[in-house]
Amino acid sequence: MSDSTAAASSPEPIPLGQPLPHRKVIRGWLTPIAEQRTAVGIVLLAIDWAVFLALIVGTVLLDAWWAKLLCGLAAGFVIGRLFIIGHDACHQSYTPHRGLNRILGRIAMVPSLTPYSLWEVGHNVVHHGYTNLKGVDFVWAPLTKEEFEGLTPGRRLMERIYRSGWGPALYYLVEMWWNRMYFPRKTYMGTSRPEFTRDGVFVTVYAALWIAALIGAAYATEQSAWALVGYGFVIPFLFWNAMIGFVVYVHHTHTAVQWHDDKHAWAKAAPFVSTTVHLTFPMKIGALMHHIMEHTAHHVDMSVPLYKLKNAQKLLEDTLPGRIIIQRFSWRWYFETARKCKLYDFTRRCWTDFQGRPTSDFKPAVA
What we know:
Helix content is 59%, strand content 4%.
């Protein structure tokens, strides 16, 4: 069924105040939209890889330092686009073929140095299975005032930096990639599989070859090896970390978003809808990020491919008016959110600052 036909047969809007249908019912609305296409997936991956390689070549061949810098920054953005493709493949939503998805996912994720299997466990099982449930979902999980005060001074400083609005790159690099993705200790992973090690070795070998190629290019073109590694590897990798750190922060951090520390109350709150933000951007920037910001639809039904998320999100927002958090992006909004969303009070169900003073409205307990 085409997207236009699916839209024509959409369910009637459910007014605010009426009970939310079961998640299976809502997913049923999206089923006609969630058609996965192998050719589309392969073409998108090939285009992004070609652009990524061209930008890395640009850091070598262009003469001006600012041109090299721009190519490095743009390459970091394209790493983010490739990762989003890998993220879809990891959800088995990119093409209809499981084995192909696993191959394409690894190809897409390797420039971000992300071990596919480790991301699959941490993201699919933990984050999507228990979104915003404290003690299980670890992605940008807020501390309570008591937990914050119990930290060492150094750790409190890190938390202040992470929550400052300037810390997404550091947060993702340390808390997500280094601690949980790159040969993680059992303290963070809880288990070990041969596949984890193989994927870790795979991205390590790729990184070594990437750096070696840049050093070789530096000698061949009589340039500084340090400079080329900086422009062609360090800057893209750091930009990518900043990009993904920002994305995962704004997906689930908002003064209207709740966190829970009780599984029963969490389940009653329909977390697949209530804990997710649809962040909108001008100038089709959201499309440049492969529609990853149409995030409610993704949490409702992970089988919807990235190239169908826009239509799926619209259907949900038309059918569930007033229930989905829609936020137009601005830097003012972003830093205001960072100022308000420091800690969380699970008793009063609100965000607080580092002194424990409420910065958002109290949310009623779920019956």
